[in-house]
């Protein structure tokens, strides 16, 4: 199938003032050489730690980056480059964003007009009713102000607002923080539904468990780089995964032993050469520190940025859960 | 592509402006004697190289008078803004920390003072205090503290609910330390900006009250006095008597407003990355 | 000997008619790890704030070892860890100063929490959420601390950091016989961490 969105070697950097007096100007690369592809009907999840610049990716696609940032690389929508003017035309129509915060709703406007985006004809009214009903919201919700909604309802209103136009690409930026399991699952299943109707979905989240629950493919983000792209089924078994960090994530899941690793994620832009994960990696060799740009390679049907991906990990021979809790 | 380093240029602008204004104050103080010298051999001269702003009907050099007037205006501005700021700080802190009753009372006062047009209030207070220097300073100082007090109050109320303040309290950090380390650094930038932005208001109100005859005495070299006197001579074609002093006053006011605006941008943490 | 909420009712200002907690009782013994699970908006955070002493109940009492919590002066034995660590540290203060004002810094605690010395010289905006959360833990774990209230402390963190933090907390709680209240949406986490899990039903 023709991909709906192709992101090729995209980097985003920021201009910052640093130093003790804030007088030094610095460019900070937050996203480095990111590539991913979304086909219609697919949910692709980008998983990374909070504060790792994932939201910037969403803003970059929509061309709504803050003015002190700069994007390089190519984004193709429907096979044609997505320029700023084209993004302006398409966003809100074919490409929609489900934003992170409920604060994206206008606090002084009732829900109904916000979903209809200013139009007030019979067709628009019917469409907004239908969108609300689809997400289990009563027609009366139209008459409520955002502060009268609970957290879960507000999220569903955000989704309804996004999909009322029948978009072809949905970008969901952390759609469920602060929701309990039941509400979160419900939101995720709505995303799945939208995908099953033929739209492509980019789900940006810090929560691997959530991503696994709904996505087809998972892109793992580490220190501003994509380190692995894998099918969701690969996460069923440790040995199917490719990158040592992805494996560490797997082992850290509460149901898989809850094992931490030592060290912390380096800041985006601070790693000049070599693999950003070397300090926490059990499998790294000298080469990992020296190679200038480790390429993203295809290994066993997925993509990985690791020189040792074909070798079996030294950790895999140990019994899982040996450092786990009693 | 080399873009301009905006924080450095802001800092430079702040330095130059402050220097310029201080320079004006000092020069004005120096020429105060000369500015009041009357010389009837040179009355009503149009602007020339010798007398760039011309001379008035008593032969006083308008350039020197303007300088002295601006200097006086800035000094009055500093004094009144300073007094206003202290009043605002005390009342704002009191409203935010001494309980709902004090808060209600002070907030009512703020609304009351804000509800009366400034110029009217300044005039009334100035007359009540016997006009002159004391009258103007008291009037302007007592009518300009409200918005700053409201700002300080709101800021403190918000800070007291911040999780890090709650955490500090539960960790046994003393009240004094909480105020010094966690409150002051947050309020100071807002406060300083508010203070600088008070200057143009104070200066303009001083000049207008004096112009209307409720302020400084006519022998003082104030811009308001110069302007109100020159009104009598404007119709006879002595345009320079009002134009240059008026222009100079507007320039100083704009300079202060720019200073406040740049200071705000310089101190505002949100624009650090801009 | 425990931290106890007895028959606590609480409503926010201006919403007296709709109490968010009604007649709630809860007891945490030293060394116990109590999980608290409830749908959003049922007052889990409010209960934490009450137990930490940030709010006063309308009726009922919060007792620490039999004495009212509000009678305690100075460093409190009950400490709360917040969901969003970036709001829990002063953005204008170096992290070292924030940590020092609570008491002397314990270097072994820093090592256990994987906090690097260099971070002490930084400002909060220069660290990630996971790193800040470890700071908040280091700050809360004063020698006088007996109870920790953890309000969704790992919800915003990635799995590896979550595992790091919880492994550390469990070990420390065991060693010091701390009482923990763990609020979380994740059932897998509660199951792994807690000695018992309670719910918070509406109008309980």
Structure explained in plain terms:
The complex is a heterotrimer of chains A (326), B (274) and C (204). Chain A is of the alpha/beta class and 326 residues long. Chain A has a single domain (5-16, 29-94, 165-317), classed as P-loop containing nucleotide triphosphate hydrolases (Rossmann fold, 3-Layer(aba) Sandwich). Chain A is 26% helix and 24% strand. In chain A, the strands form 2 sheets. Chain A has an 8-stranded mixed beta sheet, sandwiched between helices. In chain A, strands 2-1-4-5 form a 4-stranded antiparallel beta sheet, with helices on one face. The termini of chain A are far apart. With 274 residues, chain B is mainly alpha-helical. Chain B has a domain at 2-36 and 60-84 and 101-144 and 192-267. Chain B has helices spanning 6-30, 32-35, 62-97, 100-115, 118-128, 132-143, 146-160, 163-170, 175-211, 223-234, 240-267. In chain B, helix 3 (62-97) packs parallel to helix 7 and helix 9 packs parallel to helix 10. Chain B starts with 5 loop residues before the first helix and ends in a 7-residue tail after the last helix. Chain C has 204 residues and is α/β, with parallel strands linked by helices. Chain C has 6 helices and 9 strands; from the N terminus they run E-E-E-H-E-E-E-H-H-H-E-H-E-H-E. In chain C, the strands form 2 sheets. In chain C, strands 6-7-8-3-9 form a 5-stranded parallel beta sheet, sandwiched between helices. In chain C, strands 2-1-4-5 form a 4-stranded antiparallel beta sheet, with helices on one face. The longest helix of chain C is centred in the last third of the chain and has 18 residues, at 159-176. Chain C starts with a strand and ends in a 5-residue tail after the last strand. The mean pLDDT of chain C is 87. Chains in contact: A-B, A-C, B-C. Chains A and C meet through helix 6 and helix 8 of A and helix 4, helix 5 and helix 6 of C.
């Amino acid at each position: 199938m023709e991909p709906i969105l192709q992101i090729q070697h995209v980097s985003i950097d920021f201009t910052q003032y640093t130093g003790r007096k804030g007088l030094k100007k610095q460019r900070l690369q937050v996203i480095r050489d990111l590539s991913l592809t979304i086909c219609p009907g697919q949910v692709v999840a980008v998983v990374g730690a909070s504060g790792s610049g994932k939201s910037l990716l969403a803003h970059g696609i929509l061309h709504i980056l803050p003015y002190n940032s700069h994007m390089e690389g190519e984004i193709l929508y429907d096979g044609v480059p997505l320029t700023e003017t084209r993004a302006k035309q398409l966003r809100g129509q074919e490409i929609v964003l489900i934003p992170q915060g409920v604060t994206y709703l206008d606090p002084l406007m009732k829900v109904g007009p916000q979903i209809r985006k200013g139009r007030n004809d019979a067709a628009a009214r019917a469409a907004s009713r239908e969108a609300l009903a689809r997400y289990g919201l009563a027609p009366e919700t139209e008459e409520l102000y955002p502060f009268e909604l609970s957290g879960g309802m507000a999220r569903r209103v955000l989704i309804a607002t996004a999909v009322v136009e029948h978009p072809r690409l949905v970008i969901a930026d952390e759609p469920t923080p602060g929701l309990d399991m039941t509400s979160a699952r419900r939101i995720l299943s709505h995303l799945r539904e939208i995908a099953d109707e033929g739209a492509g979905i980019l789900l940006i989240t810090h929560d691997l468990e959530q991503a696994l629950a709904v996505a087809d493919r998972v892109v793992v983000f580490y220190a501003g780089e994509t380190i692995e792209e894998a099918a969701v089924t690969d996460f069923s078994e440790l040995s199917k995964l490719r990158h040592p960090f992805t494996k560490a994530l797997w082992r850290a899941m509460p149901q898989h032993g809850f094992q931490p690793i030592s060290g912390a994620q380096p800041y985006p832009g601070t790693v000049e050469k070599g693999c950003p994960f070397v300090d926490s990696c059990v499998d790294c060799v000298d080469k990992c520190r020296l190679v200038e740009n480790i390429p993203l390679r295809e290994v066993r049907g997925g993509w990985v940025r690791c020189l040792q991906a074909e070798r079996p990990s030294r950790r895999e021979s140990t019994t899982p859960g040996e450092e786990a809790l009693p | 592509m080399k873009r301009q380093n905006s924080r450095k240029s802001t800092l430079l602008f702040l330095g130059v402006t402050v220097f310029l204004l201080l320079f004006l104050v000092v020069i004005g103080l120096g020429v105060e004697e000369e500015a009041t010298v009357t010389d009837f051999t040179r009355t009503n001269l149009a602007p020339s190289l010798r007398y760039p702003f011309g001379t008035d009907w008593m032969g006083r050099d308008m350039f020197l008078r303007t300088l002295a007037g601006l200097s006086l205006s800035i000094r009055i501005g500093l004094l009144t803004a300073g007094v206003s700021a202290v009043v605002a700080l005390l009342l704002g802190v009191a409203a935010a920390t001494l309980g709902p009753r004090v808060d209600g009372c002070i907030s009512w006062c703020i609304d009351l003072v804000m509800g009366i047009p400034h110029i009217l209030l300044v005039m009334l207070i100035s007359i009540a205090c016997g006009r002159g220097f004391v009258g103007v300073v008291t009037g302007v100082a007592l009518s300009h503290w409200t918005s700053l007090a409201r700002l300080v109050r709101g800021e403190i109320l918000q800070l007291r609910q911040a999780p890090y303040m709650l955490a500090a309290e539960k960790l046994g950090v003393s009240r004094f330390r909480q105020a010094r380390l966690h409150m002051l650094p947050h309020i100071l930038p807002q406060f300083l900006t508010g203070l600088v932005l008070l200057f143009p208001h104070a200066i303009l109100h001083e000049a207008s009250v004096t112009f209307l005859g409720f302020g400084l005495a006519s022998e003082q070299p104030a811009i308001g006095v110069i302007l109100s006197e020159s009104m009598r001579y404007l119709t006879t074609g002595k345009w320079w008597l009002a134009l240059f002093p008026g222009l100079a006053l507007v320039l100083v006011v704009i300079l202060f407003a720019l200073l406040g605006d740049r200071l705000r941008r310089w101190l505002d943490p949100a624009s650090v990355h801009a | 000997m425990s931290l106890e909420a007895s028959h606590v009712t609480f409503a926010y200002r201006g919403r007296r008619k709709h109490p968010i907690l009604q007649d709630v009782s809860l007891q945490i013994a030293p060394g116990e790890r109590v999980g608290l699970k409830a749908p959003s908006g049922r007052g889990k955070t409010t209960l934490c704030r009450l137990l930490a002493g940030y709010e006063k109940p309308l009726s009922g009492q919060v007792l620490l070892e039999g004495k009212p919590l509000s009678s305690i002066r100075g460093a409190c034995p009950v400490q709360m860890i917040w969901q969003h660590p970036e709001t829990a540290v002063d953005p204008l203060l170096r992290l070292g100063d924030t940590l020092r004002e609570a008491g002397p810094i314990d270097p072994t605690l820093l090592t256990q929490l994987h906090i690097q010395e260099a971070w002490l010289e930084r400002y909060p905006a220069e660290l990630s959420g996971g790193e800040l959360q470890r700071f908040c833990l280091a700050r809360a774990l004063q020698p006088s601390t007996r109870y920790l209230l953890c309000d969704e402390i790992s919800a915003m963190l990635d799995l590896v950091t979550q595992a790091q933090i919880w492994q550390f907390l469990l070990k420390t709680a065991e060693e010091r016989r701390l009482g923990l209240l763990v609020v979380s949406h994740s059932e897998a986490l509660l199951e792994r961490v807690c000695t018992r899990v309670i719910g918070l039903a509406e109008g309980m």
